[in-house]
């Protein structure tokens, strides 16, 4: 069972049309206090050269060309080379005027009229349907420039965009809404001075399933130095590299780490749960400030399934506390900053299980780096394998395979001398309470001295059972 309380740690922002607006980010392996890049939803185009913006609409205004003073707008008569004005056509021709031009002459003149040279193109193409709400739309003018352009949703909201410095292209600057049809209007002016209309539409995909994801640790938490970041998905995404590219972690101070895709415990309904986990090369430095940004709105997770919202989380790493748990010594040692601060007599899992039908090692405590993931002053521990249900105090869960550090007065005579438990680490009531009050979610418990090893079958957090080089191989970006 998963005791980790995974919470949604953020929500999408929205523009005036209630379309979510994520913050662009990448998924670096080495993290640092860098700000996300890319157009922020809700931004305007006030930085556009030679253009004004009215609620998303772009109107390009050029300087007016004034007529020469005193000219009255008339062109001067062309010179004939002598300084005198050229004679009128009537003076040049002394022949009688001919009759009106023939219809064939008019037709020839009409056919000779040139077409406007400006061309309009778009990516995605004008009229496209089922487009991604997060893929930018770019409209480009060939042999001309954009005069006006406007993209409007069904509610009349004008989508924000950016006009290029040369006025030849315009690109959306915010995400669009699922299932909406957007109408494009505007005008371009060609190199020949002729206007060409800009018009068309785009229709955004309508998901069959808008998938909600979660991130842990959640906002405001303080966690131990072994706590990985876990972005959970209700099923395995088809394009893991795409998802990973849009999730980032920023830390102060800078911390080296890597993302990895792992399968977590099933949900309450038995459905598989996948996680994009981030763990540092070594334990987090004490006091590290962590910011997680997952730009998942609009991303395709699978057939008909798209991200419902963007999520963020800001949390901190607490004091450096590590439990050294060597089963051969029948003790646990609590260290702060690498120095022992407490030692408690303990009894670990019994070395040999003598119950018929059981594996002889079923009762052994598993060796490996466990992570504290739940704490309860009172809890009932149930084991179908060993057929018991016992109420215990000061229970600190260190894996989801049923391993706890907890009080057990029934083994007080063996604590410090022999290992007799069903896999948990037993302490006296006083010692268990003292340890409980120093523990924190995310603390590492390093178990050694047994014949069995912690692994993926043992529950939610097994990220530290791999070397760092092995862990990096779980990244879809590598």
TrEMBL record:
Q: Where is the signal peptide?
A: 1-18
Q: Which residues form the L,D-TPase catalytic domain?
A: 321-448
GO MF terms listed in the record are: acyltransferase activity; peptidoglycan L,D-transpeptidase activity
One GO cellular component term of this record is: extracellular region
Origin: domain of life: Bacteria
For whether the record's keyword set contains Cell wall biogenesis/degradation, the answer is yes
Q: Where is this region: Disordered?
A: 1-115
Q: In which pathway does it act?
A: Cell wall biogenesis; peptidoglycan biosynthesis
Q: Where is the composition biased (Low complexity)?
A: 20-42, 76-112
Residues in the active site? 406, 424
List UniProt keywords, sorted A-Z.
Answer: Acyltransferase, Cell shape, Cell wall biogenesis/degradation, Peptidoglycan synthesis, Signal, Transferase
Q: Name one GO biological process term.
A: regulation of cell shape
PANTHER family, sorted: L,D-TRANSPEPTIDASE, L,D-TRANSPEPTIDASE YCIB-RELATED
Q: What is this protein called?
A: L,D-transpeptidase
């Amino acid at each position: 069972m998963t005791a980790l309380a995974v919470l949604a740690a953020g929500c999408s922002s929205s523009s005036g049309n209630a379309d979510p607006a994520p913050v662009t980010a990448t998924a670096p392996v080495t993290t640092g206090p860098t700000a996300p890049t890319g157009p922020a939803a809700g931004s305007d185009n006030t930085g556009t050269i030679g253009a004004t913006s009215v609620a998303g609409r772009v109107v390009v205004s050029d300087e007016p060309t004034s007529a020469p003073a005193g000219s009255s707008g008339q062109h001067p008569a062309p010179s004939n080379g002598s300084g005198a004005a050229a004679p009128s056509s009537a003076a040049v021709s002394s022949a009688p005027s001919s009759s009106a031009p023939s219809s064939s002459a008019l037709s020839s003149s009409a056919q000779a009229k040139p077409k406007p040279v400006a061309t309009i193109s778009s990516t995605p193409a004008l009229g496209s349907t089922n487009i991604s709400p997060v893929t930018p739309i770019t409209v480009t003018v060939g042999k001309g420039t954009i005069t006006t352009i406007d993209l409007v949703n069904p509610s009349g909201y004008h989508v924000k965009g950016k006009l290029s410095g040369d006025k030849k292209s315009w690109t959306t600057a915010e995400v669009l809404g699922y299932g909406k049809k957007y109408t494009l209007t505007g005008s371009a002016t060609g190199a020949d001075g002729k206007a060409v209309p800009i018009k068309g539409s785009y229709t955004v995909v309508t998901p069959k399933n808008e998938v909600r994801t979660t991130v842990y640790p959640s906002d405001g938490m303080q966690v131990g130095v072994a706590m990985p970041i876990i972005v959970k998905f209700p099923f395995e995404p088809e394009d893991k590299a795409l998802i990973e590219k849009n999730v980032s972690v920023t830390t102060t101070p800078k911390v080296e780490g890597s993302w990895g895709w792992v399968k977590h415990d099933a949900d309450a309904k038995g459905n598989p749960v996948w996680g994009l986990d981030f763990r540092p090369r070594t334990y987090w430095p004490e006091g590290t400030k962590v910011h997680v940004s997952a730009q998942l709105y609009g991303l395709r997770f699978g057939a008909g399934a798209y991200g419902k919202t963007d999520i963020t989380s800001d949390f901190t790493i607490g004091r450096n506390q590590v439990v050294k748990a060597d089963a051969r010594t029948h003790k646990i040692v609590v260290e702060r900053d690498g120095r022992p601060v407490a030692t408690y007599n303990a009894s670990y899992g019994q070395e040999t299980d003598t119950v018929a039908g059981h594996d002889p090692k079923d009762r052994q405590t598993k060796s490996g780096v466990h992570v504290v993931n739940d704490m309860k002053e009172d809890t009932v521990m149930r084991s179908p394998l060993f057929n018991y249900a016992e109420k215990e105090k000061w229970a600190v869960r260190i894996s989801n395979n049923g391993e706890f550090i907890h009080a057990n007065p029934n083994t007080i005579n063996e604590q410090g001398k022999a290992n007799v438990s069903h896999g948990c680490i037993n302490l006296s009531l006083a010692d268990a309470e003292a340890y409980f009050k120093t523990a924190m979610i995310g603390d590492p418990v390093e178990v050694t001295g047994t014949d069995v090893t912690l692994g993926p079958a043992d529950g939610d957090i097994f990220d530290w059972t791999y070397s760092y080089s092995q862990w990096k191989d779980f990244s879809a970006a590598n």
